[in-house]
Amino acid sequence: MTTTASVDPAKLDEFVGRFANDLGAVMHAATILIGDQLGIYKAMADGEPLTALELARRTGIDARYLEEWLSAQAASGYAEYDAESDRFWLSPEQAFALTNENNPLFVPGGIEVAASTIRDLDLLAEAVRTGRGVPWGEHHHTLFHGTDRFFKPNYIGNLVDAWLPALDGVVERLEQGGSVSDVGCGHGASTILMAKAYPRSTFVGFDSHGPSIDAAREAAIEAGVSDRVTFEVASAKDYSGRNYDLVAFFDSLHDMGDPVGAAEHVRQSLADDGTWLLVEPYAEDSRADNLNPVGRIFYSASTLICVPNSHSQEVDLALGAQAGQARLRTVAEKGGFTRFRRAAETPFNLVLEAKP
Length: 356
Known about the structure:
Blueprint: H1 9-37, H2 40-43, H3 52-59, H4 63-76, E1 80-82, E2 87-89, H5 92-99, H6 107-119, H7 121-130, H8 142-163, H9 170-176, E3 179-183, H10 189-197, E4 202-207, H11 210-223, E5 229-233, E6 244-250, H12 259-269, E7 270-281, H13 293-311, H14 325-334, E8 339-346, E9 349-355
Parallel strand pairs: 3-4, 3-6, 4-5, 6-7
Antiparallel strand pairs: 1-2, 7-9, 8-9
């Protein structure tokens, strides 16, 4: 049992400082979502310094609330402040990250994902206590919307310009007219981006969550690609089609109960010279090497979203969001793939290529 006499005051102060930072971050998260939902950030996107009253006139929002909200943004580094004029504004960098979800970086989407786990707290606590699984569809609906908004900017910034060109011969195949399966496609952001970039190819997105497929179909119509993109409800082990030139899994394999079974189905659905693109959260193979700010995000998400989803499915391998390249290679090899390499990476992603 730890006693007061055994506590190092300097280390305790350091821990309290960490707690204060975390508490501030959690409290601030709701103000970010309010700013996003009410369009306050967008109203400040031009960078013009404004008082709370001036911003109230611009937005129609109560000035007193805005005074506190703006102060919270400035205290958190999400807005700039000039004490002499008592005005607030967004820097170009802040506006870039806070106001446009089609940018390569969009902050509110990630915060929305995190907020969904708080809404699911009782459900998740019971799952952790009992070991039961939590299927994707049992989560609060904001998880699905937030996941789309969180991952889409990353795909915009990397998928067409960096990840696909890093694969052996895939871009040439898609330019000529290939066939692509996007498994675990969610709301279809990755599928639609590829379809817009390669109009000669055809694309099918699969997801086991029916409401996400409905949203993907609507998104395809809105994007003007529904003539060459279809979406179907299916799991990674029973999706339809054969001889795909490319099968893509974006941030989905580690959530599956039977990733080896999924890999076997990918192998069967690919053309003989086809490619499996596997994008997973960045992780080193050693747990100790993942105990850092990025690993903190992924281990937390894994506890609350990824492992519960795997626990709800057959086999229940529960790879988790920090599986690492070595474990993913083992999954691919057990699924029948003989060639496996890291094609690209970002601070948040491993981009892996598997070949038969």
